# Entry
Amino acid sequence: MNDDDKFADWLREAAVDYNTPGGEVPREAMWQAIAPRLPQAGDRGASVGGRVPRWIPWLAAATLLVAVSYQVGVRQGERGAEPVVASRPAAPAAGAVYDEATRAHFERADALLTSVRAASPDALLDPALHRWARDMLADTRLLLDSPAAAAADRRRLFEDLELALAQIVQLSAAGTPDDRRLVERSLRRGEVLTRLRNAAPAPVSGT
Amino acid sequence: MLERDLVVRAAAGEAEAQRALYDAHVDRVYRLACRLAGDADLARDFTQDAFIRAFGKLGEFRGDSAFGTWLHTITVSVALNGLRKVRRIHGREVGMESAESLGGTTRRADPDLRDRLHAAIDGLPPGYRTVFVMHDVEGFTHEEIGQALGIQPGTSKAQLFRARARLREELADFAGAWSA
# Structure
């Protein structure tokens, strides 16, 4: 057994009481806190795949608004009145807003990841890139919790992006060239950049 | 009853199935949360959040992996995000990324090996520490860690290797303890 193996064995034994859970697991106390917040049978969103996304009511309202406006216009036109001309463009539906936010976010992520890959792996990461990655990570997490990540494919991409950004953010603390190469390999393996470029929704027309 | 059936019933909101899944997994989830958090109250919060998130997202569980693995993924994510928030809050008082400042609370004038080891583990970069705790302390395999963290098993191995190397460096004064 070489010295590395001896150290690994010793380490496993010595670290066994690292942050040891003390006493019994507070099962009942935790369950009391959890149970009231769980979906129950009969809830509107309880069944698998039956959850109604928050943006659906907004989309429905926007669709209804457009339909009503159109009907009003048609009726006024039938009466020979001046055609109704909207004084300002209708607000985009909520889904379109999230698509636009996603598109802009993926474009920024693409630019950031490309910059990180272009930077020398033997130098410390530029603090500006690090700050940018940290901001992007926060935005990614916000979008992950929004309807923008409702579709499974897009959600997986957001999650892979989150991981890549988290790795880049960690680089600054103690980043070595090896760490940089790990991030690079992780980006390449997950094809994150390619998927970002392919997944960006088309821009909302008229914007 | 098969766990897969329990998952389907729990996703449909059946309280009994939810409780059965909770009972089957809570010990390991809580232990992992404790190891990562180092604080019983935080571990309790993380465990609760992990189950609430998991049950809320059961409809998205595709069954590609075991339910336990999926739950551990959520637990690690909740714990790491929670710890980041805690660090942000205390960031000005304590340099949480620094081994020296973290270890300062546990080191004594005549530090013994155990305290030094724990301080050194606390001082590892978060990614290294998570892999080290999951593998060497909690006994997860590199495949399980890879699934939980969304990384390749090879990356997990590399991070563990570097974590051990850093710990060995930190504990160089005690080399006799393992080479004897």
